[in-house]
Design brief:
Elements lengths: L3 E5 L7 E5 L10 E3 L1 H14 L5 E6 L2 E6 L8 E5 L7 E3 L5 E3 L2 H7 L2
Antiparallel strand pairs: 1-2, 1-8, 2-3, 3-7, 4-5, 5-6
Length: about 110
């Protein structure tokens, strides 16, 4: 399966190369990304969404998303560990949107 391009819906983050995990994929379902893409997602979150109440940090190969009451009604966290193929399944914390480059370019003209 080849990667498609995804963005965080309603933001300027991405596009990120990723694979939908199932044929019934929806915006809050996980996408499968490489470690390099997961690092970029975490960096974008920590840099561009500072103060949102949602952060990401690495602990070895694991990526942990942590949030407080600003992001959701209560504090929490979600740790993503690499799958056997080395890819990370990231989803459920915000909606993903498939990126359509020609449509995006047309919107800016």
């Amino acid at each position: 399966m080849t990667d498609q391009m995804f963005t965080v819906d309603g933001s300027n983050h991405g596009p990120y190369p990723a694979r939908p995990v199932s044929s019934t994929w929806g915006p809050y379902e996980p996408i499968s990304v490489t470690r390099t893409t997961a690092e970029r997602i975490a960096d974008d979150l920590n840099t561009h969404d500072a103060g949102s109440g949602l952060t990401a940090h690495w602990d070895g190969p694991n990526l942990t998303f942590t949030w407080d009451e600003r992001y959701r009604n209560s504090k929490g966290s979600d740790t993503v560990t690499p799958e056997p193929d080395g890819r990370y399944l990231i989803g459920g914390l915000w909606p993903w949107c498939q990126w359509d480059a020609p449509a995006r370019q047309a919107d800016t003209k």
